Amino acid sequence: MAITAAMVKELRERTGAGMMDCKNVLNETNGDMEKAIEVLREKGLAKAAKKAGRVAAEGLVKEAVSVDGKTAALVEINSETDFVAKNEQFITFVNEVAQLVLSNDVQDVEALKALSWPGDASKTVGDVLTEKIATIGENLSIRRLAKMTTEGTLVAYTHGGGKIVTIVDVAAEGDKAKEVGRNVAMQVAAVNPEYISMAQVSDETKDKEKEILMTQALNENPGKPENIIEKMVIGRLNKQLKEICLLEQEYVKDPDLTVAKYVAAELGSADAIKSFVRFETGEGIEKKEENFAEEVAKQIQG
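Below the sequence we write its predicted C-alpha cells.
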C-alpha cells in the first residue's frame, strides 16, 4: 500500500512520534493506522497514542485584540476535563495560540497548525499541540478560530473565565464606543442571538419558519379560518425572530429598551453595531457522561 504524506501526518499528530518513525512504521504495517500506533507504543515511541481518540469537550476560548482595536482573534482549544482547562501550562498555550492567530493571516485550523512556533522554528503549532497532549496527559484539540478587522472598534467580553467569549464590531471610536461595545458583547454572551437584525434573516428562512408555525397552529386550532390562523402565525413569527435578532432583543440591562434603542441613544444609530462573533466552549460537542464512582470500582476490581 502506498504511504501518503497525509497518513504520516495523521500518525504523527496521534502519537507525537518522529516523522521518519511514523513513515517507517506505516510501511512496516502496510498502512494500517491502528496497528502502526500499537507498534509505536511497543517501541516506546508513541507519546500521545490513545489520547487523541478521547472526547475533548472542555477547555477555553481566548480572544486577542490589537492595541488599536482594529483587529481581533478568537480561538477555542478543547481539553477532556475542566481540571486541565485551569492548568497554567494549558492556559499559557491557549493565550500563545490566540496571539498567533492575531498576528498571522490564518483562516482555518489547518493553516494555524502549520505555522512555525515562536522561538523554535523547527516546530509547528501542530507539533507543540502534540507535545502538550503528551505532557498534560489528555487529548487536546484546536477546534476553531475567527479573525475580525474593522475601521471602527472591536470590543471583547469574556464570561466564566473563558467559557464564553464574544467580540463586537462597533462603527465608532473612543471610550463611548468601547462602553457600548462591551455592553452589547455582554448581551451577545448572555442571550446568544443568531443575527444582528431581522434584515439579515433570509426570506427562505422566514417562509420555512412560517410554514412550520402554520402547521402547528392549524393542528392546535382545527376548524378555525385559515386567514385568522395566518394572523396569529405572523405574530408568533415576529416574536420568534425578535428573540434571535440582537437589535430586536430586550436589552438585558434595561428591559424597557431594545438593544437597538440603547445603541441608538448612545451612538446615534443602531447601525453602529456591524457584526459579532460568539464562541462557547464545547458547544455542539457531544460530551461523554462519566460515572467516576463506577470507574474507580472497576479499577479496584482489577
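The chain has a mean pLDDT of 88.
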